[in-house]
Amino acid sequence: QARGRGGQYISVVPSLNTIVVTTGGGFEYDKVAPYVMAALTKGGAPLPANPAGVAQLKETVAQMAQPPAALPAGPLPETAAMVSGKVYGFEPNSIGLESLSLDFDDPAQAVLHIKLQEYAKTLDWPIGLDGKHRLSSDGRALRGRWPDADTFAFEIFEIGQESYQVHFKDDRVEFSSPKLGIEFEGQQVNP
């Protein structure tokens, strides 16, 4: 057996003349393994018909074959210049975010400087502003946009996709991810 990060597994089962390969993220192989093994050891009995599941699988495969949707590119709002290089600190929170700052020196790419409790140093992640992901040195792909003049939204693709918003107001910032159910505020630390 070979075990990789985030659900990447290869299992060789010589007694069944089978190799099982899983790729993906957001699941634990140990939770699905009993179902896989049960399906393999039923002695060739067909699985029950599942037309809804087949339709969903076909739709998902078709979507995955498409390139990611381009995000609208355009001029940066005035807020980008006002917050560029400013550091925002946070009280203890559920994701361990200690501080962040964004540099908007290039209209096609921002840089997120982020300090998380689990890392000893600040991480520097490039963010594509032209609809294209930028790859960080630690394997994350990021892109972002300004949905309104005071809110910067970005997505991180690593094992799955996570989306975040940073809403700026005066010397405060609201950091949120509706999908993950997080929302907390920070304060500018270098006025």
Keywords:
single chain, 191 residues, alpha+beta, ten-stranded antiparallel sheet, three-stranded antiparallel sheet, 17% helix, 41% strand, elongated
Question: Can you walk me through this structure?
Answer:
This protein has 191 residues and is an alpha+beta fold. It is 17% helix and 41% strand. The protein has helices at residues 29-40, 51-64, 78-83, and strands spanning 2-3, 9-13, 18-22, 87-90, 97-106, 109-116, 123-128, 134-135, 141-148, 151-157, 161-169, 172-177, 182-188. It contains three helices and 13 strands. It is elongated. The strands form two sheets. The chain has a ten-stranded antiparallel β-sheet with strand order 7-6-5-4-13-12-11-10-9-8.
In which range does the helix fraction lie? 10-25%
Q: What overall form do the CA principal axes indicate? A: elongated
What value does the Rg take, in angstroms? 21 Å
Strand order of the biggest β-sheet:
7-6-5-4-13-12-11-10-9-8
Tell me about the largest β-sheet: 10 strands, antiparallel
Mean pLDDT value: 87
Question: What's the tally of helices?
Answer: 3
Question: In angstroms, what separates the terminal alpha carbons?
Answer: 54 Å
Annotation, overall tally of beta strands:
13
The unreliable regions are none
Our estimate of the beta-strand percent is 35-45%
Structural class: alpha+beta
